[in-house]
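Lecture 7 notes: from sequence to structure.
We start with the chain below.
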Amino acid sequence: MMPYWVKSLVVLLCLLVTGECSRHRHRVRRWTGTVETQKHGTALTKKPPDVTKSRKPKTENLLKVDDHDFTMRPAFGGPAIPVGVDVQVESLDSISEVDMDFTMTLYLRHYWKDERLSFTSSTNKSMTFDGRLVKKIWVPDVFFVHSKRSFIHDTTTDNIMLRVFPDGHVLYSLRVTVTAACNMDFSRFPLDSQTCSLELESYAYTDEDLMLYWKSGDESLSTDDRISLSQFLIQKFHTTSRLAFYSSTGWYNRLYINFTLRRHIFFFLLQTYFPATLMVMLSWVSFWIDRRAVPARVSLGITTVLTMSTIITGVNASMPRVSYIKAVDIYLWVSFVFVFLSVLEYAAVNYLSTVQDRRERKMRERARSQSLACTCGISHTRTMAMLDGTYSEADTNSLAGYTEDPLGPEEEQEMRGVSVSEKPEHMVVHLSVSSESTATKKKRSLRALNIMQNTHAIDKYSRMFFPGSYIFFNLIYWSVYC
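Predicted structure tokens for the same chain:
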């Protein structure tokens, strides 16, 4: 009898020659009574089938993408296809007064029906796809009117979603950040309110091909309650729609997202209004400074003027160069005028004081020259003689404060002997006064004279006129703009 190993060797040689190893492999295993082993001697087990590699219909085949021409709109040649839109505002990022624009991040969703994408489904469930399928089907060509910059977010992938229902209804959603222009009116700045709008419109399809509308009316626009801005208070969001006409292409449906912003005033009160008011009040301090303190009053006036110029320059640097007057300009320039007038007030006071000093100096020189012709006694009685019979009213007024000394009998007879028509050659007046009382009265009169000279009349009136006028201006200003 042939040994067992010889039989096995013969069978293997036959199978190798005929090339039917795969068909008779199980026979070899049964005859040899062995199993295939791995390199390290461990037995191999049979793996379960991979279900991911099972053949299923492709999405393109299920939606019949290759069977239709999606470069044409749905129902081409028929009535306009309605496309509903709703928007969810995620954030209002910034408002720029200099560039007159705003930046907004939003979720833009489109709703329409394309029967070419309908498919059979036993569960009537929709299918959701990412942005790769969008390039193969028709989608509305909505764009933002008056936009400066816009982009679709792509972290970590393109933020695009496409959801198709079995009856052909489509939801197309994307996350967009757009910077659009906003025509602002700064005539009441910073006590103003601005109304901006984001406009959506089809770029290629007129109202005869595509009807763009808000899907749920005013409820089509939803916002996050946590949206806030540093300088503005968001008062209202609302939607509108209308037709836009282009002379070369026709009428288009246009949707508007309108929102109203009211500016916070507290920041500008601290940075602009309070400093300007304090500078005006500081300029009034010069009215209480002695008019002879020229360096103090001049330096105070120049400091307040330069500070007001700096405040005006800083405010205009953060604003667009508009050709009309803003509310803040009125306040700052009126304040600047008040500060400048305080400097001019001191210039007028200094000039008038100089003129008055010159006039008094001339009067003192004239009185001194007239006193050279007088004879005055230094004893207990003083005598002043008006020679040649000439004396002025000022000379008689200068005798005030002196006591009259009664004439003697001989002098009285001589005066009676002079007729009215005859003019005496000289006139002698005897005045007696106490030397102590005269010195006291002169000291008091000099003190009063110094006070009257140092406190000029213009400074007195300015202390009341400037504050009163500025308060009146503030009452009118805040009642008009608030």
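Points to note: The radius of gyration is 53 Å. The mean pLDDT is 79.
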